């Protein structure tokens, strides 16, 4: 083999502490082809074998045979190889999930050779990674429903495990992401495709390079889940030259693929982020080095990992614990949590990653039993159970063995009796802590800090890192001064005076509780993005100061919603919090599952609230021990699934609870330091483009407390990075301090939009279409952010206000807390009319559809306009979607007003074209209007019923016509269409589509064309009729 150079390597770690940036060989203009050639040249220099002739499935299969024979030191005969391929390597009905499982779990196959002997055939060698052969190929051609040619593929033992999609410098990296997404739909997953083995995608435009897992999970298949590689100090490695020199080191790539990826029980492939890998490998190395130095049972033999809340600590700690169990000298690994609810949640999370790797226990006896088992499983337990065991058992064999303790949220479990007992009982332990909010001298209440108990910091990834990497969101913090005569109380900063006010229940004045409750009900839909008729949006939590506050708010919400047609689903949970000594300033008191210590009034209220919950969801929970624990778990699931709109809490759920669909936290509680960051962080998990930050709405002035907390747990520039900009900045524009980028404000964007494109119908040339798409995308982004600001909600509502109606004006002022001067100032702000925005949205959707058709027709090659830097904001369009019932309701209302079908049809066309999800139903709705006597329909409900009856009849007719016209297998076609309508999209995966096609050899040149035509017609039909119900199969209900 030719000599090659290793550019970046480290003895212990693949995430490097130091890396010297590669010098650019050439500063001249690079085409995409130049970039590809340079990339492959660099890989060859790093020891990859380049195979220019492997560019089709037959050549790939032949190479796999060669590589597997070398890896397994054997030879397949010409009759054995096809049998091995068909029975294991590339089974006819394998999905990408099946093939991923073969890389992670089933990578050893017992193959029976022709002569009768059996041998284990390995696809990969996970013990000695260097034995796996890495090769590189380019421009591989494969046909699914489209013929595609892939840029660069990395083969491991011949199998395509990594796909690289390159774009020339200057092209938006999202375009590379979109291309991978398109290939996934068009050919990666076609029948008999070895590309179903793909584990990782790499996208790069030369200056920005990212990696992400190949997953079929639709909610994980977004750009938000892509990541840059990085050094151990979290500085990003983005340029392709540097990315190649680090990430594509053979050892690094193989470790990421085979060691730092997890295929969980939900069939989701998770590839760890660089900071997760950095922490895991440093913890692993620390165990080994401490053991070799015979340095155990001291802070110097362990350490702590500071990874901010929401950055994926559970996966990191699981991988660290799992790797520790594989060390020969380690007898047991304990994963220790501080709360019963976290114990349950961590068990569930760990079992998601690997069902057989963890033992949990319900009590101390169960914990003892798990310790005595001779296996290498991780034991998940609470600090309380572990402490009870140590107090009651003096001489367990485990005390003399080599054990690893990993403490989750170690700021809570590091002090007190349990820590003293652990040091006294266990003779050979290595202790590690994970925390998002360490205890420093600034926020410690005693002499101990996280470092003094656990030892040195092994790795940090603080909130500013996570926000920069877009792994968590910023916070938008509002102090709502809506009750002016309580302002002095709410602005008090002195802790003693605040505690005295709490004791006197000054914050529980009925008028204050009622005003805050009204505010929350008024603003709920705006804050959670539920203003539009589809109403999915997000949900919210309300943190209150104590049980009395929870009761007051819960009762007030019920009273205020008594007459509401669609009241918010509100629940509450709390239990007794023992008045234990706090470890740090601002720590949220621990509420266990024991409710017996609650006073009779609190318990009576909790029972009543749980009864309301039981009545709502047909459940049967109570405040008794197991009943309450089960209530907690059920409530947790329903909050995550958005079945609860608003959850009122005192302490529970404010730490350790992870629900990406939650975007708003209302606060009437004094939060400080750790407790403040933990509570705020319930809202800032990434979800989609609509969720731009965590909404924090406080009814006490927590501004200084917020600044103090984010400064302590971040760095000197944290305030500018972590807190969202003001309303004024988003309206007028600002310069982003972190990136230096100048961001235009809403007013400038609107001004240009109205000046350049006053009439959307006149956007005809391709250049105008592109310019409009970029500009309106900018408008959608800034408008989506402003939707969260009360001032903007007031500005929009003002456009609909009848200024000639004095009563309406006064009600408006009261609702938005405005005076006459405010209204005069607001009138001066030019906001586009709702109908104008509707027309713009319609045009934006039309351009997106037009561009997709052009690309499919391959006509873009002739265009002189480069669309690569345009990203269509599909998530934002969907977030403002209107549903079908809403459209039908408007048809009913508008018909009553005008009785003119022509103008009604025009209104409906305008409305539906602005809707990305319903525009396929345009002809269906127009035909319904034209064929229906709307005057004879008495109410909205009847219009909806009439439409669905009409649509179902049309659906039957069109399905039958399609089957006849294309000569399809009727039963198979109806089955496939019924399944597609149910899941709301047509898929080419599996064999169902082939089964419905007319009899024709797949080798016939017309076969693929016919298959594509049929698929497209069915996909269009599904898009048109999804959601209308009705029967497709004879036995459909």
Distinctive features:
27 strands, 40 helices, globular, 13% strand, six-stranded mixed beta sheet, 1037 residues, alpha/beta, disordered N terminus, single chain, seven-stranded parallel beta sheet
Give an account of the 3D structure.
- This protein is α/β, with parallel strands linked by helices.
- Helix content is 46%, strand content 13%.
- It contains 40 helices and 27 strands.
- Strands 15-16-14-17-18-13-19 form a seven-stranded parallel beta sheet, sandwiched between helices.
- The protein is globular.
- Mean pLDDT is 82; it is low at 1-9.
Question: Quick recap of the structure?
Answer:
This protein has 40 helices and 27 strands.
How helical, in percent, are the residues? 40-55%
Low-confidence stretches: 1-9
- Per DSSP, the total helix count is 40
| Sheet with most strands | 7 strands, parallel
- Count of beta strands: 27
Strand content: 5-15%
Cα-based radius of gyration, to the nearest Å: 31 Å
The computed structural class is alpha/beta
Task: Give the averaged pLDDT, no decimals.
Answer: 82
What is the terminal separation in angstroms?
66 Å
Based on CA inertia axes, which overall geometry fits? globular
- Spatial sequence of strands, sheet with the most strands: 15-16-14-17-18-13-19
Describe the secondary structure blueprint for this structure.
Blueprint: H1 32-45, E1 49-50, H2 57-72, H3 80-89, H4 96-104, E2 108-112, E3 118-122, E4 134-143, E5 147-156, E6 159-166, H5 173-188, E7 200-204, E8 209-213, E9 229-230, E10 236-237, H6 240-246, H7 250-258, E11 261-263, E12 269-271, H8 274-292, E13 303-307, H9 313-325, E14 332-337, H10 340-353, E15 358-360, H11 364-372, E16 378-382, H12 383-392, E17 402-407, H13 410-413, H14 416-425, E18 428-435, H15 450-454, E19 457-461, H16 463-468, E20 474-479, H17 487-491, H18 495-503, H19 510-527, E21 539-544, H20 547-560, E22 570-573, H21 600-617, H22 625-640, E23 646-649, E24 662-668, H23 673-680, E25 693-698, H24 703-712, H25 718-722, H26 727-732, E26 733-735, E27 742-744, H27 746-756, H28 766-786, H29 790-799, H30 806-816, H31 820-827, H32 834-856, H33 874-879, H34 884-898, H35 901-913, H36 922-931, H37 940-966, H38 970-983, H39 992-996, H40 1005-1025
Parallel strand pairs: 1-4, 6-7, 13-18, 13-19, 14-16, 14-17, 15-16, 17-18, 20-25, 21-23, 21-24, 22-23, 24-25
Antiparallel strand pairs: 2-3, 4-5, 5-6, 7-8, 9-10, 11-12, 26-27
């Amino acid at each position: 083999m030719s000599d090659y150079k290793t550019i970046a390597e480290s003895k212990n770690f693949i995430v490097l502490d130091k890396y010297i940036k590669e010098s650019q060989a050439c500063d001249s203009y690079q085409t995409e082809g130049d970039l590809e050639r340079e990339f492959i040249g660099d890989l060859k220099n790093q020891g990859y074998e380049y195979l220019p002739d492997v560019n089709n499935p037959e050549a790939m299969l032949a190479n796999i045979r060669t590589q597997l024979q070398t890896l397994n030191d054997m030879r397949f005969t010409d009759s054995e190889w096809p049998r091995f391929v068909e029975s294991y390597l590339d089974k006819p009905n394998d999905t990408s999930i099946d093939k991923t499982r073969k890389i992670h779990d089933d990578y050893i196959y017992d193959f029976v050779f022709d002569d009768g002997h059996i041998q284990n055939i390995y696809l990969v060698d996970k013990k000695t990674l260097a034995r796996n052969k890495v090769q590189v190929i380019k421009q591989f051609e494969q046909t699914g429903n489209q013929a595609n040619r892939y840029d660069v593929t990395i083969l491991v033992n011949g199998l395509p495990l990594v796909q690289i999609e390159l774009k020339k410098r200057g092209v938006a990296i999202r375009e590379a992401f979109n291309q991978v997404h398109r290939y996934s739909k068009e050919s990666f997953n076609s029948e008999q495709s070895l590309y179903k083995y793909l584990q990782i995608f790499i996208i790069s435009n030369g200056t920005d390079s990212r990696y992400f897992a190949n997953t079929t999970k639709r909610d994980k298949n977004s750009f938000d889940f892509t990541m840059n590689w990085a050094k151990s100090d979290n500085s990003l490695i983005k340029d392709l030259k540097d990315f190649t020199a680090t990430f594509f080191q053979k050892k690094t790539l193989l470790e990421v693929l085979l060691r730092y990826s997890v295929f969980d029980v939900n069939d989701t492939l998770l590839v760890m982020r660089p900071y997760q890998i950095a922490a895991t490998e440093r913890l692993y190395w620390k165990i080994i080095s401490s053991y070799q130095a015979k340095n155990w049972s001291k802070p110097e033999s362990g350490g702590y990992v500071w990874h901010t809340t929401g950055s994926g600590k559970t996966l990191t700690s699981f991988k660290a614990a799992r790797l520790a169990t594989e060390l020969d000298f380690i007898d047991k690994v304990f994963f220790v949590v501080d709360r019963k609810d976290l114990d349950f949640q961590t068990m569930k999370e760990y079992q998601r990653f690997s069902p057989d790797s963890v033992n949990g226990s319900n009590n101390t006896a169960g914990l003892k039993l798990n310790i005595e088992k001779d296996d290498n499983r991780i034991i998940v337990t609470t600090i309380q159970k572990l402490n009870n065991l140590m107090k009651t058992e003096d001489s367990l064999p485990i005390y003399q063995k080599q054990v690893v303790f990993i403490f989750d949220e170690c700021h809570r479990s590091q002090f007190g009796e349990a820590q003293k007992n652990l040091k006294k009982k266990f003779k050979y332990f290595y202790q590690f802590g994970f925390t998002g909010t360490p205890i420093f001298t600034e926020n410690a209440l005693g002499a101990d800090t996280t470092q003094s108990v656990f030892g040195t910091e092994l790795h940090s990834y603080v909130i500013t890192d996570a926000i920069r990497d877009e792994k968590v969101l910023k916070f938008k913090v509002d102090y709502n001064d809506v009750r002016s005569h309580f302002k002095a109380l709410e602005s008090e900063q002195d802790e003693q005076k605040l505690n005295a006010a709490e004791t006197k229940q000054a914050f529980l004045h009925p008028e204050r509780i009622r005003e805050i409750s009204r505010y929350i009900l008024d603003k709920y839909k705006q804050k959670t993005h539920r203003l539009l008729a589809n109403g999915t949006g997000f949900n919210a939590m309300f943190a209150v100061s104590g049980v009395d506050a929870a009761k007051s708010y819960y009762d007030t919400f019920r009273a205020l919603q008594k007459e509401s047609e669609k009241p918010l689903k509100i629940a509450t949970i709390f239990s007794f919090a023992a008045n234990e000594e706090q470890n740090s300033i601002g720590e949220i008191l621990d509420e266990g599952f024991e409710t017996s210590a609650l006073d009779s009034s609190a318990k009576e209220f909790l029972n009543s609230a749980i009864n309301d919950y039981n009545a709502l969801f047909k459940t049967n929970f109570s405040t008794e021990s197991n009943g309450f624990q089960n209530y907690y778990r059920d409530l947790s699931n329903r909050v995550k699934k958005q079945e609860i709109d608003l959850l009122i809490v005192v302490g529970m759920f404010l730490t350790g609870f992870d629900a990406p669909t939650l975007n708003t936290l209302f606060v009437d509680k004094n939060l400080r330091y750790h407790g403040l960051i933990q509570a705020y962080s319930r809202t800032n998990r990434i979800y989609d483009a609509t969720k731009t930050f965590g909404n924090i709405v406080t009814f006490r002035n927590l501004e200084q407390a917020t600044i103090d907390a984010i400064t302590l747990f971040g760095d000197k520039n944290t305030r500018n990075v972590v807190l969202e900009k003001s309303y004024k900045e988003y309206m007028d524009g600002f310069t982003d301090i972190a990136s230096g980028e100048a961001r235009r404000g809403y007013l400038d964007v609107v001004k240009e939009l109205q000046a350049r494109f006053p009439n959307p119908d006149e956007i005809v040339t391709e250049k105008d279409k592109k310019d409009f798409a970029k500009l309106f995308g900018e408008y959608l982004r800034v408008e989506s952010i402003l939707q969260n600001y009360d001032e903007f909600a007031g500005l929009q509502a003002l456009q609909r206000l009848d200024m000639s109606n004095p009563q309406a004006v006064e009600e408006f002022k009261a609702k938005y807390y405005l005076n006459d001067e405010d209204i005069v100032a607001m009138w001066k702000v030019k906001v586009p009319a709702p109908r104008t925005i509707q027309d713009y949205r319609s045009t934006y959707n039309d351009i997106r559809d037009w561009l997709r058709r052009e690309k499919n027709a391959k006509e873009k090659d002739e265009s002189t306009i480069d669309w690569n830097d345009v990203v269509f904001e599909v998530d934002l369009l969907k977030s403002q979607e209107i549903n079908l019932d809403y459209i039908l309701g408007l048809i009913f209302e508008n018909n009553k007003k005008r009785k003119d079908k022509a103008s009604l049809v025009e209104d409906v066309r305008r409305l539906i074209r602005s809707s990305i999800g319903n525009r396929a139903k345009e002809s269906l709705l127009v035909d319904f209007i034209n064929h229906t006597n709307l005057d004879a329909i008495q109410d909205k409900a009847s219009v909806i019923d009439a439409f669905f009856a009409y649509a179902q009849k049309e659906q039957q007719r069109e399905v039958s016509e399609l089957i006849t016209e294309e000569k399809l297998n009727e039963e198979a076609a109806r089955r496939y269409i019924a399944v597609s309508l149910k899941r709301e999209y047509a898929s080419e995966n599996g064999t169902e589509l082939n089964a419905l096609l007319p009899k024709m050899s797949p080798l016939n040149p017309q076969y693929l064309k016919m298959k594509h035509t049929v698929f497209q017609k069915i996909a269009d039909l599904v898009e048109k009729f999804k959601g209308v119900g009705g029967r497709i199969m004879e036995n459909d209900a």
